[in-house]
């Protein structure tokens, strides 16, 4: 008789890019049965992942109510996730829980991640740990270079030397790089990002490019998960949290206001992303092409 597999529940809802860069934790549960709770928008990134037995989409969590897990890992500060993590039954719980109207760490392993969300100086200036290091630490594990696992298998083949992934979300408008049109004019084999109706189409487009030029966006995480060479420009968000696995280079200016995490348009005299020139990016593209 085969031994019973450990039953694991992972809760990660918000930020599709963060959902994707949470997938390295799955390498630690290869001999377990994993249930992942997320939101509908992230499902294409998880579906087909061989290390996930089932995906539960909020708010449809009724079939979890009778379950008893060996371990629950809630990596989300979202109060819906924290309430769910508190309510579900498990022998061991890690990450974040719900406590008196807010979120709180289950144990000491999650205190550093909790502090990052509460202490701007720590998150913006002092933290030197990558997201993956913090993730594994929160789970009581040690990160040893575990990589992304993308569930969706792209149907495209490489057609372009460079893809310019220039669109940014509304939450952090200062991630936008203003010089992408000039860069496109310098390149012979280039494809420029467009609006895609389905996430799968977006993954297929990224996969059709050999090198991706991007800001700190979902596309960056997808490109890294697809093991593309990536040229990343950053200013308003923390570059220390980004793990490139040796496949990317991060271009960033040096300004005292960086990173700012501002959710409104920058009003500084000098805009950090302006300082990353097309010539700088082109130089990194040529280096990546030569490798």
CATH-scheme architecture of the largest domain? 3-Layer(aba) Sandwich
Which whole number gives the mean pLDDT?
A: 94
**Measured distance between first and last alpha carbons:** 50 Å
Walk across the major sheet and give the strand order. 3-2-1-4-5-6
Number of helices: 10
As for the number of domains, it is 2
The chain-level structural class is alpha/beta
Query: Under the CATH scheme, which class of the largest domain?
Result: Alpha Beta
Q: Roughly how many Å is the radius of gyration?
A: 20 Å
The helix fraction, in percent, is 25-40%
β-sheet strand percentage: 15-25%
Molecular structure report:
The protein has 291 residues and is of the alpha/beta class. It has two domains: 6-138, Glycogen Phosphorylase B (Rossmann fold, 3-Layer(aba) Sandwich); 160-290, Glycogen Phosphorylase B (Rossmann fold), CATH 3.40.50. The protein is built from ten helices and eleven strands. The protein has a six-stranded mixed beta sheet. A five-stranded parallel beta sheet has the order 8-7-9-10-11, sandwiched between helices. β4, α3 (79-87) and β5 form a beta-alpha-beta unit. The longest helix has 13 residues, at 278-290. The radius of gyration is 20 Å and the shape is globular. It starts with 5 loop residues before the first strand and ends with a helix.
């Amino acid at each position: 008789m085969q031994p019973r597999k450990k039953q694991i529940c992972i809760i990660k809802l918000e930020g599709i890019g963060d959902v994707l860069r949470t997938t390295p934790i799955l390498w630690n549960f290869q001999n377990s049965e994993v249930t992942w709770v997320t939101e509908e928008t992230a499902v294409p990134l998880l579906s087909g992942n061989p290390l996930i037995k089932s995906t539960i989409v909020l708010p449809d969590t009724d079939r979890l109510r009778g379950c008893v897990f060996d371990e629950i890992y809630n990596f989300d500060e979202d109060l819906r996730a924290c309430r769910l993590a508190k309510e579900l039954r498990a022998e061991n719980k890690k990450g974040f829980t719900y406590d008196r109207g807010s979120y709180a760490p289950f144990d000491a392993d999650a205190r550093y991640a909790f502090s990052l969300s509460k202490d701007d100086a720590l998150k913006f200036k002092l933290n030197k740990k990558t997201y993956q290091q913090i993730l594994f630490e929160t789970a009581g594990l040690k990160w040893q270079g575990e990589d992304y696992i993308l569930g969706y298998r792209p149907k495209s083949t490489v057609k372009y030397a460079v893809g310019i992934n220039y669109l940014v979300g509304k939450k952090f408008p200062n991630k936008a790089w203003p010089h992408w049109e000039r860069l496109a004019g310098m390149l012979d084999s280039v494809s420029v990002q467009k609006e895609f109706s389905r996430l799968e189409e977006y993954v297929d487009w990224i996969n059709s490019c050999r090198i991706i030029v991007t800001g700190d966006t979902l596309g960056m995480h997808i490109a890294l998960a697809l093991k593309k060479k990536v040229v990343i420009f950053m200013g308003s968000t923390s570059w220390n949290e980004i793990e490139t696995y040796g496949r990317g280079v991060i271009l960033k200016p040096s300004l005292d206001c960086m990173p700012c995490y501002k959710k409104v348009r920058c009003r500084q005299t000098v805009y950090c992303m302006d300082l990353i020139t097309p010539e700088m990016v082109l130089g990194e593209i040529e280096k990546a092409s030569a490798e």
